[in-house]
Amino acid sequence: MSQIIYRQLDPIRLPLVNKIYKSFYPSGKAKRDETIWVAESNNSIIASVRFKTIDNIQLLTGMLVIPEYRLQGIAYKLIEACRNQMNQQACYCFAFQELEVFYQKSGFQTINSENLPNNIKQRFQRYANSGKNLIPMLFIDTLTSESMSKNISKH
Q1: Where are the domains of the chain?
Q2: InterPro entries, per this entry (predicted)?
Q3: For a tag site, which of 31, 70, 77, 118 has the least CB within 10 Å?
Q4: With DSSP H G I counted as helix, E B as strand and the rest as coil, what are the percentages for the chain, rounded to 5?
Q5: Topology given in CATH for the domain delimited by 4-154
Q6: Residue pLDDT, tens place only, 101-136
């Protein structure tokens, strides 16, 4: 496999991402007001994740890895590439139940929907009421948490 590059998407390339969503995740569509990160191989987008800012929080949404590239660690590395951004503001996601462990390994913790901020709680309830099997999660940077606790224990 050729080298994979992880980077924030140049907004001019938004139509390329939407073409991929249309093919592999029809309910997802990237919007100009979102921050979008991609994984690219041979100048082709093979994975994408979007961040929607709602007031003072981020909602990770629309994570997609093209099927032929799945189960190769690309999604983990894409989230790792976004880590600095996710640490700038509280970052939540609504994970499909079958992806809960993946998101936990990526630094998210499962939370009770009652603990969601009001500005996204209604969105979560709407999705859940439409029959989607979703779990609310909050990003907790375990690397930062571990180094902070080590520094605290030294003092």
Answers
A1: 4-154
A2: Acyl_CoA_acyltransferase, GNAT_dom
A3: 118
A4: 45, 30, 25
A5: Aminopeptidase (3.40.630)
A6: 999 999 999 999 999 998 899 889 988 888 788 999
